[in-house]
């Protein structure tokens, strides 16, 4: 029979199973039971306060970033429209719209001069998921109108809902009666 299996524990290893081996762990033996409901509620209240203070600032930054993205995309689309106009000698009609940047025209004379597509991929939507609004020049030599209708997708508005673009690349009065 193997004596080492039934050997008595040495004096070093003798300790009661319910007592911690060293004193520093004694205070943690009781704390190992978890958090109380009150402690969890206090932590949730603190997290809620932090979110209520920081959240509005973050959302304001998101709205500003969307407006900047819309302005940058409008500049890109304006450049593509101008490049296409130099090739085909006309701006797209309202019916053709921005689709003419990616799809060849049906008219044979324009189709022959069209050197597109002028965009990689499809025409992008504005940052709010709405299509950009294009209106050809009303008088020859005047700039065309290209806008994003802002966060609400309707003409006009203020703040986040303000139209972006227009004839000058800033806010617009597109769709408003004068």
UniProtKB/TrEMBL annotation:
Polar residues composition bias: residue spans: 169-178
Cross-referenced Pfam families: N_methyl, T2SSG
Membrane topology: Single-pass membrane protein
Location in or out of the cell: Cell inner membrane
Segments traversing the membrane: 40-59
UniProt feature, compositional bias: Basic residues: 9-21
Xref: InterPro entries: Bac_GSPG_pilin, N_methyl_site, Pilin-like, T2SS_protein-GspG_C, Type2_sec_GspG
This protein's UniProt keywords: Cell inner membrane, Cell membrane, Membrane, Methylation, Transmembrane, Transmembrane helix
Domain Type II secretion system protein GspG C-terminal: residue ranges: 58-165
Superkingdom, natural source: Bacteria
Subcellular location, principal: membrane
Biased composition (Gly residues): 150-159
Region (Disordered) location: 1-21, 143-178
PANTHER family reported for this sequence: GENERAL SECRETION PATHWAY PROTEIN G, TYPE II SECRETION SYSTEM CORE PROTEIN G
Family stated for the protein in its record: Belongs to the GSP G family.
NCBIfam families according to UniProt: IV_pilin_GFxxxE, typeII_sec_gspG
Name recorded for this polypeptide: Type II secretion system core protein G
